[in-house]
Specification:
The protein is α+β, with helices and mostly antiparallel strands. Helices cover 46% and strands 15% of the residues. The strands form 2 sheets. A two-stranded parallel ribbon has the order 1-2. A two-stranded antiparallel sheet has the order 3-4. β3 and β4 form a beta hairpin. The longest helix is centred in the middle third of the chain and has 18 residues. The protein is globular and about 45 Å long. It starts with a helix and ends with a helix.
Amino acid sequence: ALLRRCGFAGRELVYPRELSLGMKQRVAVIRCFLSSPSAMLMDEPFAALDYQNRIQLHRELLELWEQEHKTVIFVTHDIEEAIVLSDRIVVLSRQPASVMAEFQVPFGRPRDPAVVLEEEFLVLKRRVWKALGPKADAAVRFGD
């Protein structure tokens, strides 16, 4: 069922070498849910996906979370993704990592990924961006 939900209908018997990097990322997310742990660490699970697949998997992850209510520690460098998927955001410094800021996400559940269009979302995104400090601005300007 998870394979179907995540776009693998008809590809159940495909060899791993035949999968794109994005498909391998999706399989890793499926594996995580299949093992049914009480808590999951997801480190950049959607990084290799195109925008449409990323949004689709955000929806799937949110739906699975609604059903399972597992603790998920989600590591991402994407501020929008953090807000859409999280209840709490912790901004960490570079190594050695320390907490620079913490934010409660004010949007209820179930959460529609279209929340990114709301003004309150943009206000929170700006606050998180500022917490990243001047290096975040330099990273965008110079591609660091």
